[in-house]
Structure formats: C-alpha cells, structure tokens
Amino acid sequence: MSKKILVTGGAGFIGSAVVRYIIENTQDSVVNVDKLTYAGNLESLETVENSPRYAFEQVDICDAKALAHVFEHHQPDAVMHLAAESHVDRSIDGPAAFIETNIVGTYTLLEVARAYWNDLSNEKKSAFRFHHISTDEVYGDLEGTEDLFTETTPYAPSSPYSASKASSDHLVRAWLRTYGLPTIVTNCSNNYGPFHFPEKLIPLMILNALEGKPLPVYGNGQQIRDWLFVEDHARALYKVVTEGKIGETYNIGGHNEKANIDVVRTICSLLEEFVPNKPMGVTKYEDLITYVKDRPGHDVRYAIDATKIGRELGWKPQETFESGIRKTVEWYLNNKKWWSRVLDGSYSRERLGNQ
Ligand SMILES: NC(=O)c1ccc[n+]([C@@H]2O[C@H](COP(=O)([O-])OP(=O)(O)OC[C@H]3O[C@@H](n4cnc5c(N)ncnc54)[C@H](O)[C@@H]3O)[C@@H](O)[C@H]2O)c1
Prior knowledge:
The protein is α/β, with parallel strands linked by helices. The protein has a domain at 4-196 and 228-254 and 300-319: Rossmann fold (3-Layer(aba) Sandwich). It contains 13 helices and 13 strands. It has helices at residues 13-25, 64-74, 88-93, 96-118, 122-127, 160-179, 201-210, 230-243, 260-274, 307-313, 321-334, 336-343, 346-353; strands at residues 4-8, 29-33, 54-57, 78-81, 129-135, 183-188, 191-192, 215-218, 224-226, 228-229, 249-252, 257-259, 289-292. A seven-stranded parallel β-sheet has the order 3-2-1-4-5-6-11, with helices on both faces. Helix 1 (13-25) packs across helix 8 and helix 2 (64-74) packs across helix 4. The chain starts with a strand and ends with a helix.
C-alpha cells in the first residue's frame, strides 16, 4: 500500500535525492518540510515538483505550531528527518544555528510527531515510523587503519556539528525508550553526487578548477573519508524507512575510503579528460592544488562497516567511487545553470522576492 512520507530538509542535497527517488521510483507521496536556509534549493526538485504526489511546506522544524499544522493537514505515515545544519566549517564559525536546528529542532519535531502519533488509530500507530538520518561523524576519529565504525561504536563527536547530531541521535533513542515512538536511526558516511552545494569538498574542487582558481586542501590532505554516492544513500534510506526494524541503528557506507588529496587528484584527472581546454595560465589542473591551514579538531579517518544493512535489508551500493565520481563531474559539467545560480545567489534571491 502506498504511503505518505514527511521528509524534512527535502530541498537540501541528500533530502532532494530522497524526494526524487521516492517520486520517481515508488507510488508513495512526499510532503517536503523545509525552512529553505542557504542550503535549501527548490531548483533541485524541478523534475518532481509538478507531481500530484509531491507537496512542499516552507516550515522551520523549530516552529512547533506550524509543524503540528503540517502533520494535521497531511496525515503522514512516516517521517524521514534530514533537516539540519550540515557544514562542519560553518559549525566552527557559528555553532548557534547547529544547536538550534539540530538539537532543538529535532526535539520539537519529536514532540509534534509524538502528539500526532498518540492520536492515530492502533493500525496506523503500529505502522508509523520516525526515521532519523545522521552521520558517521558522531563516532569521532578512527585511529587504526583497520578499524571501522559499527553500530555499537561509542559516540565521541569532535566538532560542534557532530556533537549536535550526536545529541539529536540520543534524543531520538530516548523518545523510543521513554514514549514508545517507533524510531529508527541511520548513520552514514560522506555523500557526494549531483546537486551538492558548492561549499563542500567535491563540488568546490570541480568548480574552482574550471575557473582556474586554487584548490584548497586542508593540512596534508591525508584525512580519509568513506565516500557514498548520494543516490545509493537515498535508496538505502527508503529501504530503512519501509523495511527497517524499530529501535535499530543502521550504518550506511560505500566501502570507498579515500584520502582527500586523492579525491582532488581524481577530479583533476577527470577534468583533464573532459575539459582539456584549461583556463588561461593553467597547464595542469593538479597545479592548482594549494595546501591550507588544517581545520581545528579535524578528524583523521572515518570508515563505515555497512555489513548490517546489507545482511538484514539486502542493500548495497550500486556505484563504486570511480563510477560515481565520473558521473558527478559529468553532472557538474552538464548542469552549469543549477550551480551558477547557486554561486551568484540568484536561487535564493528570487525565492525571497517571491515570498
Ligand atoms: N552530506 C553528507 O555527507 C551527510 C552524511 C551523513 C549524514 N548527513 C545528514 O543528512 C542530512 C542531510 O544532509 P545534507 O548534506 O543534505 O544537508 P544540506 O545542508 O544540503 O540540507 C539541509 C536542508 O535542511 C534544511 N533546513 C535547515 N535548517 C532547517 C530548519 N530549522 N527547519 C527546516 N529545514 C531546515 C535546509 O534548508 C536544507 O534544505 C543531515 O541531517 C546531515 O546531518 C549528511
């Protein structure tokens, strides 16, 4: 039977991939609840915005009254909670918004969902799910090169961002233990792919290289991240919300550990292939690599053990890093309109003008 899923943060990078996946691959409906911060971009949803199974509500998850109205009006069967402040560097410069949205916002959403869930019929109540989407950064740093984060790795967040996400994970678990709200948590490694906001590593490097600007790499570039193609993540999340077990945590990862510097070099070599006509004064894209002062508290290595979701729910990534990064670079080359409107700010200026 088809469901109505309330997705928070559906105008963001991963949220928009989830919304597109659900509308394009299932019979379910989506209510996208998004405040439209700088990271929210409705232009990432153009392929699905006219679907009768898609609705958008511009609401802040910290606004209990507006949220309660959305639940009342749309009567969702499940929540997928992705809305968050998500950029580590921004959390170091200004942690307040991270505390507000990631902690207070998650608390507010839990309370509104709980009040709504309490009033459901028994059948709807037992079918309801609250799926909280989190990050592997809550586990902190991995020391040994062989270690992997599992679902039982203790939490040890390092940045204001990861600490706020860790807090929200604890709140979600407590709402299950204390109130019985049927929650599930997923913790995922670094995502990349189409519609990624150009402040994040991979799109930043692609776009800077195309303009002949420096490619800033933190410290010695040896920080290791486990990269997952965003559409693989979206498929995993849908599997979890529809088939996952209440109270469980599932780690999601791509088994693609790469040092940041190698990611940047791979992008450079793909650009050599796709755009051999370089900007003036650039002989090789790699010559643009510039090492900059490391980020404070920078974790050295993250890597996920995603065995459980594979074993229990039959999910595995379809893209390798090599195929996914090729698709990503090609997407940025073919979608200049999307990213130039982000870079010049027009994606949000026009939106404000229309309100
Ligand atoms: N990007 C990654 O690599 C990654 C990895 C693992 C987990 N996650 C988690 O996945 C989720 C989505 O990440 P993303 O990269 O798509 O983030 P993003 O920054 O691209 O998008 C966040 C979205 O949330 C919205 N939002 C922010 N504050 C809000 C509020 N108060 N009320 C309503 N909406 C609000 C924004 O407008 C935006 O559309 C986050 O919870 C993040 O912690 C991200």
